[in-house]
Amino acid sequence: MFLTLFDWTLPVHNPVFLLSILLLIVLAVPALLQRIRIPGMVGLIVAGAILGPNGVNLLERGEGIQLLGSAGLLYIMFWAGLEINMTSLLQNKHKSLVFGLLTFSLPLALGGLCSFYLLGFDWMAALLLASMFSTHTLISYPIVNRLHITQNEAVTTTVGGTIITDTLALLLLTVVSSSVQGTIDGWFWGKLALSLAAFVLVVFGVLPIVARWFFQWVGSDLTHQLVFALALVFLCGVMAEVAGVEAIIGAFMAGLVLNRLIPHTSPLMNRIELVGNALFIPAFLFSVGMLVNLNVFFQGEKAIVTALTLTAIALLTKWAAARATQKIFRYTASQGRLVFGLSSSHAGATIAIVLIGFQIKLFDEPVLNSAIFLILVTCTVSTFVTDRAARKIAAESAAAPPVPEKMQRILVPYANPSTVANLVDFAILLKAPGNAEPVYPLSIVFDDEYAKEEVLQNQRLIGPALQHAKERQITLTPIHRVDVSLVSGILRASKEFLATDLVIGWRPKLSPTEKLFGSMLDNLLSKAPECVFVTHFMRLPFSYSGVKAVIPAKSHLEPGFGEIVERLEYVCLHLNAPLQLFASPEMIKVVKSGVSKKMAGRVQAKSMEAQNWWKLHAEMREDDLLILVSARSSSISHEDFMEKTPGYLAAHFTGKSFVLAFPSL
After folding, report:
1. Cβ atoms within 10 A of the Cβ of 277, count?
2. Which residue has the higher pLDDT, 360 or 656?
3. Angle, nearest 10°, between helix axes 463-471 and 451-461?
């Protein structure tokens, strides 16, 4: 009866049902596609195309989704302004100007000629269509932020140039639309100049004073600070539209205003990233996908030719501008590809231009559909190119830093008290000789009505481990935490006790939910910056007589690689065992140069590609300990074979002893 009262017609109109579907898509689609190495951003665009009005029509691009999508576009531009290095931007302002003019003028000139001579548009329509090629949206900016290369000069130049080219293209849109409607006169130019001058004066003259006053005297609460920042973004967007330009320009300027007031490592910055990554940016990508109409390929040969031609022009002209910028400023090949990747995606301003062109009847429906197809292709290309180039730059710019001088402090989270003794023993193996710092076993209890009883029970069950440590003359300091999740409890304790290493046990079997959304280990690695050691022992840790270590290429580029080499040396010294090293010749040299003189003569190296580590299965004895150095999925040294390592270990190494080691960030 109740099911019949609910409106099941498509598309979904019930706002609660619509929002629940959208959030489930944002949650599930990136998780699923990242399993097959497809960026989550592309997945959301494709999901929008499939589920939107031009697909199965599950959801319509109504006011709610348009609102979230518009907020997401502004958020991307705001984030870019917030993250940019102002010192670098000012130092490279001339480079940003050059790139901005190149990425505006080359697509405008080449696109205009192709639109006029190849596609047969009149000059006014060709000019407006060419302005669409000149714009770009920093849709792949979250990738460079995730890989921590936002300070790279190529990124700064591209972000600065984005504002220049989008501003010029949108001003051209204003001029063309006014010309078609016959409203251009002397007052038009004067009004446009005065409104833009007033806008810039208010944004950079008044708002910084207001923001500084708010943060100093009013906004002590993080929630108030976040709301103020969001309000400033949308207020600047409104003022930009009043001044005659698009809201994205105002959002970027809001980021510049708050750039020096919000530290990059502050809790407020973390909340800004959380809100954007969790809701606004995914909603924007999904809303872009909903515009895609693949039926354009079934509307005749002309529609296909138009779609493919527009897409090719957009990519080639942006590539030409990026290539010219690379040559002029002598950027590396990776930096040149990064400039192209960041500047090749068309979305926000492109949508504005093509919709207005359609409304004033300069464009017909095939052009509108072709432009939407262009958005899908360029956003996909941008995502893949940016990801590869950004990883390459991160690897090129990274260097193995000296091991930080900080007190080694080992945290041992456990779920089963019977395994604590082995975990503690391995923690002792990781400790530097002479380090008197205690080992910290950590139990996490879920915050429910039974929490007190479970804490008391864990305090009793840790007794045998305390006795075991006493026999080894090792000090244990047990920690018991109540939290909403295991990962949250570990992260909080790690921060509180300034942990440098985490030692946890191996779980070979995953639930269906963990296979879909990631295991506890996946979640921990994505959030914990410390060295993480995942252990699986078939005997007492102090009974091993051989240590085999597999180190992949590029591992030395990880910030915490020096600590990993240290830990390997400590394990071998405690066990009085040689280190059998399996790595590329380059990595063998790096490791040998990183160990102490006392250990250097005990390193037995054999050249081997890390992806062939599984061949060691036949060589391992019962008293051998295999240590596999791995990497987090978003880090510099991560390789595809690492995704399959846990599954292979679970299937073929359950009878062997091994440790997965993840360097700190």
Report:
1. 17
2. 656
3. 30
